[in-house]
Amino acid sequence: MRFLSLFCILLFTFGLMPAHARDVAGGKDHPLVGRYEEAVMTLYKTRDYEEQRLLVKPIRSADMRAAAGKRLSPANTLAIAGKAYRIRYEGPAGRSALEVARNFQADMKAKGFQILFECRGKDCSDGGGSELYFALHDESPMGTGDIHSSPDTQVYTALKLTRPEGDVYASVYVIDFAKKPEVLVDVIETQPMEEDKIVFVDAAEMERQIAANGRVSLYGILFDFDKATIKPESKPTLDEIAKFLTSSPDIKVVVAGHTDAKGGFDYNVDLSKRRAEAVVAALAASGISAGRMKPFGAGMAAPVATNDSEPGRTKNRRVELVKALEF
């Protein structure tokens, strides 16, 4: 009887605890987004720098086919990079997903956000409402959101806040599940990536490393997010490659593109090959014979560091020159 009384006291006391006291350890509301009153935080993830795709159009079957099955593609998203947050809330019981979503929208608009896109129910995709769930659950670099699928009740909102210190993008996904709302919040605070973390490799160092190791890793060739378009700031490294190949006219090289482990295997192999082809084309345009270069896409198959951290993934995203005897 005493045990039962103690159990009842603990149960009563826990029931009176404020929602914040039951939050996941280390979790914090994002100050520009907040939470619905009496909701409990069950997931909190953050990374200092991440690249993500923000859905701003419905998911279409034709776009998925063109993007090798990916639901989030250049056709329906904005590519955004910066400090990233992924936060999940539950409750309170008795509130609908639509009511919670409308409260988030009103509060964030009052803070200066503009709504970029909103969809409800099965209007979020022509392939069935669950496509939105799979997109948010399976294709985020922040990992799964521990959310459920409820196509009939889902409400999704993408928003943007413009500010001098860097724009802020957010998405709010709300569903009804087990008679209470679930909320998944993603926030990206755009900001410049920390640079000068990779040592610049000049032509002489390329020659030295290839003589010693048969290959050299290059981090100075940068591409637009999820594309094979070479960024202008890659020119110094491309110039050094051309200088090296010009001074070593008998050398043939495999130009190998490498990605991190985010995304599907086949997709990354294709992306890395297209990037390698872009490098070969750029070098050929500068006067290097295309016959001396062979583009190759390794995808995620040859990491040089862990893919479980952003510093590791940064090391894995690279272009390598590998000495070849013949093609």
Automatic annotation (TrEMBL):
Keyword hit for Hydrolase: no
The family database entries (Gene3D superfamilies) matched by this protein are listed as: OmpA-like domain (3.30.1330.60)
Q: Tell me where on the tree of life, at the top rank, the source sits.
A: Bacteria
Q: Return the Pfam families for the record.
A: DUF4892, OmpA
Q: What InterPro entries does this protein map onto?
A: Bact_OuterMem_StrucFunc, DUF4892, OMP_bac, OmpA-like, OmpA-like_sf
- Which residue positions does the secretion signal occupy? 1-21
Subcellular location(s): the record lists:
Cell outer membrane
> Which keywords annotate this record?
Cell outer membrane, Membrane, Signal
Domain OmpA-like per the UniProt entry, residue ranges? 210-327
GO cellular component labels: cell outer membrane
Its recorded name reads DUF4892 domain-containing protein
